[in-house]
Amino acid sequence: MTRSVAVLVAAVAAVLAAAFFCPTAAAAFYANHTCLYGAGSYHFPAAWLVKTDSNGNEQWNETFGGDGQDFVGMVQQTTDSGYVIAGATGSYGAGDFDAWLIKLSPDGATDPTPPTLPIASPAPNTTTQTPTITIAGTASDASGIASVTVNGEPVNGTLNWSANVTLTVGDNTITVIATDGAGLTTTKTITVYRIEPFTFVHITDVHLGYWPSDNSGEKFPLSIEKFTDTLQSVKLHNPEFILSPGDLVEYSNNDFFDAYMGLLESLNVPVYNTPGNHDRRGWNPLKDVGLTAYDGIVVNPSNIESLDDGYRDYYFDKHGYRLIGLDTGADYNVSVYINPVHPLDFDYDSSPEGDGLNDTQLTNLSEMPSGMPKIIFMHHPAIDASDDAFVEGASELPVSNSCPEEHGGNDASIAFNRCGFVDYCINNTVDLVLTGHTHRDYIATVSDDLDTHKTQFIQTRSATKDPDIHSPDIDHHGYRVIKIAADTDRVKSYNPYTTEWTNILERYTFVGNVPNGACYVEKGDDTTGTDKNGNVLREIPNTYYTEPLGSEYQVIVYYLFKNGEPDDWYLCKKKPVDDATSSISTSQTTLAQESTGSITISHRTENVTIKYIYENITLGAAENATAGVNFSSENTNCTMEFDDDGDGTTDSTIDPTHILINYAPNVSITTPAEDQSGNVTILYNLKDAESDNCTIMAQYRLDNITWIDATMCEGGDGMINLASTPLGVDHTFMWSSGTDIPQTNATVYFRIRPYDRDLAGAYATTGAFSVDNSVSGDLNRDGYLTPTDAAIALAIAVGSRPFNDAADVSRDGKVTSLDALMLLQAAAGDNTMTTTVHSPT
């Protein structure tokens, strides 16, 4: 028995001896115990209280207690004319006897106020990766706390309580109920979200296909190769799924969409798609033809839930996250204008805004659980680095930006509801907004007003597009890997360039353009392609197949890791004719089933691409006739063999009509002199055996691990359309180090990688050199020139501080009051007085 209970029991004994007491002259109380009335059973006494007037007439009586033994030891009137009873209870609390306090109203009714129940931790809508969480808080009431439960189970303690709760993945509602001595309850609920670590990939702007003005024979397979290179690289990260938000194709064309879906079927990783502006463009980029082709061909995984908003918006839940795919609409404000160089042509904004999101879409988002962790993926950005600008000669004004400054720029972004959407994201636990459209890597982070949640608005480079003469500022093609990690920094992302991994493999690309031909690759007993029986197969590992497109245009891409031995056949066989539906007569069969077309086979290794072109080949009319190339090492000339009658014996052979060889470009680089700052000149030499014009990638690093894309400034030769010869051409890259590493004094390495039309050369890297962008005179090392720096310089000048060379901004070999004055003027922004104070360019 606790000391407090012992005291109360003693008080009970005293009351029993006195029988009753009168708190006022006008009334009397009889406090006793009953086995006949009240809340307790007849086996145990309960508290029984009777109030009378001064003449002994009963005004009311009440009993209190539970299934245990309960005793009242004291009754006292309170200042509000109510009453408080103190005693001991065996019905409530932790067991045995506990202190018992009951508050009554003036008419004897039990205190109508339910207990208070603040939950101290966790905070509502907490996100965690742990399988259990501790919930804790307090409970209090004038009548005492009888019990506290969490999800129906008793907790440790009552006035101060806690419990461990096991969490499932996703949302967990935790219910806490406190019951006071009068039987009143208070219920509180909070939601806790449990997430699990996982990895996925964001690809965007695949742009499979070509514009009609392009050479489809070159551009279509090239876009397929770049896409499958990216997919093959993505597989190295073993993602659970891929998000692909828009511009799946160059323009709305059934063949392009068919090719896209065919390549994804070879991947065996779920891909979630949303449409972009190109997916609804016609061959005229200014014409919106809608999403009929997209809707009829593009298929998402089956676990999605439609938002039923009249658009193609949907969501699915994974590992505690809700992933939401949005349709950001067609082109808006395309800004058509006449090309001043070619007046008969028109130009337009190459990155127009999107006409989403509309009010209905935003309303549907707001109806989702606010605290649930979310990832949104859509085509157009919500935040860009700059605002939409006026294009000289354009027929439309730029889209105005009315959002707060912290919401960033609106170029190439959603044109409507941008401010509301950003507000929604930062206030509704959206961790990531993944977009494309700009073909550039860009991240903007925006916090809510209390700085309790941050949303990353992320753009990712194109999966296939590289810098060119029309788009010099886009990034080399690649993708983004996103890891939901098991630590406090739970969202991590990084951007592999597709070309970073291609030196570990060889790639064969088979392009068959043979009407009624069925093209396939055989390796042992495995086949990829449409076999001689008309079956579509994808059995060979690391192969991709488009299935027949248009007039039986087919592409097969086949990857082997370095030093792999192909030892397989590329075959083309006439496509079987269904006799039941064929209108070909017996006399026409031989002529009709002979097919003439072309086949191109490209073989890429690390440093060279060889393209074998077979023109005007004819497939025999026999049922099993084939034309094929054996890619084993014995067939050094890639001779094509024909079996015209299908008996398994070669009837004739031809060598390739053309063999085109392209070697990767080569670059050498000169290490800059020591002590660079501001704009740094990087000298390099570019060689290419075919004298191809090249692009370059320029990067720097401050450690031995991380390479970062370098910012180019004015001057130099740029990064695209760079001349080369077999003997080499000297070039200059101007690096804006003041932009990339401001207020830094560091040892730097720099590297350049060259690209021609389809190959990446090796990196050339400088030796170490110094870049000093620190601000001279920044004596308190806060990165700025302030009056504090001037005060420090003055203290040095009068001798109260030791000499510091950084304070000698006048460079006269000493620190004087002149240096302090110059720093003060620099802090005030007087540029005329601070020309000798060094700062980065």
Q: Your description of this structure?
A:
The radius of gyration is 39 Å and the shape is globular. The strands form twelve sheets. The protein has a seven-stranded mixed beta sheet, covered by helices on one side. The termini are far apart. Helix 9 packs antiparallel against helix 10 (817-827). It contains ten helices and 52 strands. The protein is mostly beta strands.
List the helices and strands and how they pair.
Blueprint: H1 3-18, E1 20-24, E2 27-34, E3 46-53, E4 58-64, E5 70-77, E6 83-89, E7 98-104, E8 119-121, E9 126-128, E10 132-138, E11 145-150, E12 153-154, E13 160-166, E14 170-180, E15 185-194, E16 198-202, H2 216-235, E17 242-245, H3 254-265, E18 271-274, H4 292-297, E19 305-306, E20 314-318, E21 321-325, E22 331-332, E23 337-338, E24 346-347, E25 353-354, H5 359-366, E26 374-377, H6 418-427, E27 430-435, E28 442-447, E29 454-459, E30 480-484, E31 491-494, E32 505-513, E33 517-523, E34 526-530, E35 536-538, E36 543-545, E37 553-561, E38 569-574, H7 589-593, E39 595-604, E40 608-619, E41 626-630, E42 640-643, E43 652-654, E44 658-663, E45 666-669, E46 679-687, E47 695-701, E48 708-709, E49 729-736, H8 737-740, E50 745-755, E51 764-765, E52 769-772, H9 787-797, H10 817-827
Parallel strand pairs: 9-15, 16-17, 17-18, 21-26, 26-27, 27-29
Antiparallel strand pairs: 1-2, 2-3, 3-4, 5-6, 6-7, 8-10, 10-13, 11-12, 11-14, 14-15, 16-30, 19-20, 20-21, 22-25, 23-24, 28-29, 30-31, 32-37, 32-39, 33-34, 33-38, 34-35, 36-37, 38-41, 39-40, 40-44, 41-42, 42-43, 45-46, 46-49, 47-48, 47-50, 50-51, 50-52
Helix pairs in contact: 9-10
